[in-house]
Amino acid sequence: MDILKRNNVNIIGKGTQVIMFAHGFGCDQVMWRYITPAFEEDYKLVLFDYVGCGKSDIGQYNEDRYGSLHGYAQDILEICNVLNLKNIILVGHSVSSMIGMIASIQQPELFRSLILVCPSPCYINKPGYIGGFEEKDLQGLMEVMENNYVGWASFLAPVVMKNTERPELVEELEESFCSMDKEITGNFAKVTFFSDNREDLPKVQIPSLILQCTNDDIAGEEVGAYVQDNLRNSVIQHMKATGHCPHMSHPEETITCIQQYLQNEGTLI
Amino acid sequence: MLTHLEYDGKEVIDHIRFEDLLTGGSRIFYKTHFLPMLMMQGKVDELFLSLSSKSGKEYPVLMNMVLSDNSQMHTVHAVGLHMAKRNKYEKGILEAKQAAEKALKENALLLKMKSELERHQELLEQQLRELKRINQQHVEFNKVLSHDMQEPLRKIQLFAGILEGKTEKKKDGEKFSFYLNKLQDLSLYSRDLLMKLQRYHSLEKRMNKFTSGNLEEMIQAAVSKLNIPEIQPDFSKLRVKEVRGDIPRLTWVMRELMANAYRFRIEDTPLKIEISSELIKENYYKTVQDAYRYTDFIQIRVKDNSMGFPNYGQDNAFGLLQKFHVESGKGLGLAYCKKIVDLHHGHILKKDNAEGGSQFTILLPYLP
């Protein structure tokens, strides 16, 4: 199996130090477009789409594997191993913060540091923990997603169709940004928003930077503080940027934060 | 729209963000999917969102949004259409579609399972047959190792001894007894090797019943058994200590890895051994393709600052009779370690440390 094709891996940049960018739920590697130019000169940048997102090979989607964030972490580890990447700086947005942490717990020797953009280890409120959402909100998310896929003329989801003879249904997906397969996205949403990975935080051994936005409805201030309290060797940077996608809405500030961290990395630890 | 949402114009403008008007689920999807799309491609058409009224009533809308950038401000122009009735109608279609999809999926799944089951059954039959054959060979081979080959060697040793006793101290006598001694040594070595091979070979049958053990105590037991002052492992990073298996044999594995570190230590450098453990999730299926079940494993890492192993392939290091240094023993140690770990349905991997030295990672199913 060609892992680079499976995950639509793209490598750019003139440097040798690796920065790997992992996209979050709801989009694909295109979301890093405003960030990558600032690092191209000095770094080797590795971009990819998780199986089932963007221009990845949907045929390789396996419900059991991607029914767990560990399956997504395996995507990252397989890409690193097939490209023989070492000393990696991993930038992960949203759910990819958690996926990146899981990958680093399994093979800490591969990574140098983690840059966590709007991380949350658990989105649902639990006793003594404010994740920001109730279970019913997340049920609502599933409903909204269902409603938004009415527009697709596909009667049958491409996942079901993958072995049959109607490739045009899959092709339809590949045309727009952040394109997603309904079935896969539904599963990804479930595994993203219903996972509770709080226990994994203390297992992370490598240093990390947490980028916390102002007024982030998905991963609020309390969540960011919780992550920092439970993550050894972590620093938190409160950004002026609002929302949940600073790398798209406020790329300059995001770039500065990442660059500053990388410059001072040695002194912060 | 404000009437429907039960808000006053003054309450909303400059006070409430658009996303605050959305239901929780809509807000997540808007922020994680639509907003990135809007920022990337400048517009999004026909997005379905649910607004929430002041008293919590849902207000479904279909919207088109365009991003316009004039100098410093991002402005989003949005047009929306209340679609309560249509939404009900669509919900009906959706439910029917979901039911049809579910049925189709289940049907497809059943058909797939059926053919897979048949295939697996065939495979199982073949593998069982193969296993039976290997087992038979195993028994025969074990007999050869433990008896048929030992006996001639014992006799060679015996006769060489007799011969040596009868040698007259003639001119060639010294040379003669030199060769005889060599012969005796070699046969002794071969007998020892054979015995060890036979023990290695028959390990399956000699495994102890699985019990629970404490990793820290096992390491301490291994250290005191080794009784080498330089071996003082740092096990402050043992985050999981509960191990289930053949505890004496797993203790032996720890002992062997530490003994290796000592055997291959760099002269004039104090020996450092660090043993850490962590609970991780790994795919249970390693042989069956495309099967995934992430289950708990205890991951034990033994890291040292020895001269490490030459760059042998990953699996080669654990091969039978592999020797890396002149100081090596018979080349059975790591093979033994691997077999013991394998018999626990675990894995052992060797990695060269970035800072030099060697690092072994042992994964054992976590069975509390």
From TrEMBL, chain A:
The UniProt record lists the AB hydrolase-1 domain at 20-254
Xref: InterPro entries = AB_hydrolase_1, AB_hydrolase_fold
Recorded superkingdom: Bacteria
Which Pfam families does the annotation name? Abhydrolase_6
Q: What family is this protein classified in?
A: Belongs to the AB hydrolase superfamily.
The molecule here is called Sigma factor SigB regulation protein RsbQ
Gene source species: Arenibacter certesii
State the gene name recorded for this protein. Answer: rsbQ
TrEMBL record, chain B:
Please name the InterPro entries in this protein's record: HATPase_C_sf, HATPase_dom, His_kinase_dom, HisK_dim/P_sf, Sensor_kinase/Photoreceptor, Sig_transdc_His_kin-like_C
Q: Which residues form a coiled coil?
A: 86-144
Q: Which domain of life is it from?
A: Bacteria
Matching entries from Gene3D superfamilies are given as: 1.10.287.130, Histidine kinase-like ATPase, C-terminal domain
Q: Which GO terms describe its molecular function?
A: phosphorelay sensor kinase activity
Q: Which residues form the Histidine kinase domain?
A: 144-368
Q: What general EC class does the enzyme of this chain belong to?
A: transferase
Q: What is this protein called?
A: histidine kinase
